[in-house]
């Protein structure tokens, strides 16, 4: 019995298991502490998302005051900081007791304190401008972290959004599909931009390399693609969409009927308020001369071969009418400052039609509107074709170099051949165009 007791006292069986258990205690503690730290990371990611939304929403509210866009609704009934805090609340972060925001998902949690601060800044990182900064923090108890002396843990996130003014206006705006350049297209538009509301990866696309020259601030909702060269370097991608500044014009003009006009002409030579199928034949058009006034076409208009058409005019195509320009015509047209129209058009719509050169409301088709011509052709004014793509080809050009401002707003825009676009006077010709504002996160 004495021997057995001695043996038992000296027995080492199970000592390894006991030592393993002792060693696992700190390891398990570190793993638990790591899990707690992981929950902090998840909270910080949620706080960052809420801060991003708050800064962006606050800056959008400031954009309402800076330049509300025609055709859009701008709700400025609340302050910018209210809008920012509302966006944070919709992402579960509110100041204590401040939860009464539309769509709020804030829930009070015992021992947890959250703060939301939204401020307007006149500079950020030494760069002057209009900014909105959102700072969100959450203080919560430290549990296992108390062994490190952390009785509470504060998790914070900050975001900064900048309000930018884009070129006034974008000289080229594609409302749905990409802006495409190929061939030997030349765009000289240093004072106003090129924009595409397409979200595609090729929202602004450069096909080929040789001969393409683009000097213009460029913005797109989607990406930029190129088959050679470095044309995409100057394109700002993944921006917010630019509203159609003439959407009210499109709504009003697309609703016009021939009965809205007091007189319906059907002459060989176009007259104001024209409602005919002019040039609608396979033969060469016979008209060559001056267009002066506002013209409304209900039939298809085809300008072919080499007529010379000049003047100061606004050309409206409605009720299924289409415009086709082919061959090598010489077209030198300047838009009217005060287009006229039937009484059903409101004064506000007519005001938006200032400098409108061509409106074509035809429905989308693969062909769309094709414009070509000689190197002496030019348009001074706005070509507005919201429902179909526009293709510029041949040797067509826009405004006479250095003389005017040319703008194209269309479903999609393609520049081919030797097209030349010169908008060097777009900021000084007095044209009434919207000041386009964008908001982007800079932190």
TrEMBL record:
Protein's name according to its UniProt entry: Flp pilus-assembly TadG-like N-terminal domain-containing protein
Domain DUF2134: 66-161
Matches recorded under InterPro entries: DUF2134_membrane (IPR018705), Tad_N (IPR028087)
Domain Putative Flp pilus-assembly TadG-like N-terminal span(s) in chain numbering: 14-59
């Amino acid at each position: 019995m004495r021997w057995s007791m001695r043996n038992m006292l000296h027995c080492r069986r199970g000592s390894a298991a006991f030592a393993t258990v002792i060693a696992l205690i700190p390891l398990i503690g570190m793993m638990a502490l790591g899990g707690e730290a992981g929950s902090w990371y998840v909270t910080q990611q949620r706080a960052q998302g809420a801060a991003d939304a708050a800064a962006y929403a606050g800056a959008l509210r400031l954009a309402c005051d800076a330049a509300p866009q025609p055709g859009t609704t701008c709700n400025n009934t609340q302050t910018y900081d209210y809008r920012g805090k509302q966006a944070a609340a919709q992402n579960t972060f509110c100041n204590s007791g401040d939860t009464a925001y539309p769509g709020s998902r804030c829930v009070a949690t015992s021992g947890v304190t959250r703060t939301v601060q939204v401020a307007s800044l006149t500079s950020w990182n030494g760069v002057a401008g209009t900014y909105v900064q959102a700072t969100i923090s959450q203080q919560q108890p430290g549990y296992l972290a108390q062994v490190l002396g952390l009785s509470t843990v504060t998790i914070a996130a900050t975001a900064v959004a900048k309000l930018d003014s884009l070129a006034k206006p974008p000289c080229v705006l594609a409302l749905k599909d990409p802006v495409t350049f190929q061939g030997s297209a030349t765009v000289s538009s240093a004072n106003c931009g090129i924009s595409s509301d397409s979200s595609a990866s090729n929202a602004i696309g450069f096909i080929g390399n040789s001969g393409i020259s683009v000097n213009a601030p460029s913005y797109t909702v989607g990406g930029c693609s190129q088959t050679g060269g470095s044309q995409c370097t100057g394109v700002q991608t993944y921006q917010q969409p630019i509203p159609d500044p003439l959407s009210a014009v499109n709504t009003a003009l697309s609703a016009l009927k021939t009965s809205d006009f007091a007189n319906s002409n059907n002459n060989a030579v176009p007259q104001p308020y024209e409602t005919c199928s002019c040039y609608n034949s396979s033969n060469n058009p016979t008209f060559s001369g001056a267009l002066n006034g506002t013209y409304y076409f209900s039939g298809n208009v085809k300008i072919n071969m080499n007529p010379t058409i000049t003047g100061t005019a606004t050309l409206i195509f409605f009720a299924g009418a289409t415009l086709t320009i082919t061959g090598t015509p010489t077209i030198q047209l300047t838009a009217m400052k005060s287009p006229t129209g039937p009484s059903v058009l409101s004064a506000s719509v007519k005001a938006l039609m200032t400098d409108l050169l061509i409106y074509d409301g035809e429905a989308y088709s693969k062909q769309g509107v094709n414009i070509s011509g000689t190197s002496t052709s030019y348009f001074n004014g706005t070509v507005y074709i919201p429902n179909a793509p526009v293709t510029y080809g041949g040797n067509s050009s826009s405004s006479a170099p250095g003389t005017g401002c040319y703008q194209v707003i269309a479903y999609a825009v393609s520049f081919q051949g030797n097209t030349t676009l010169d908008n060097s006077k777009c900021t000084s010709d007095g044209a009434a165009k919207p000041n386009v504002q964008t908001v982007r996160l800079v932190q």
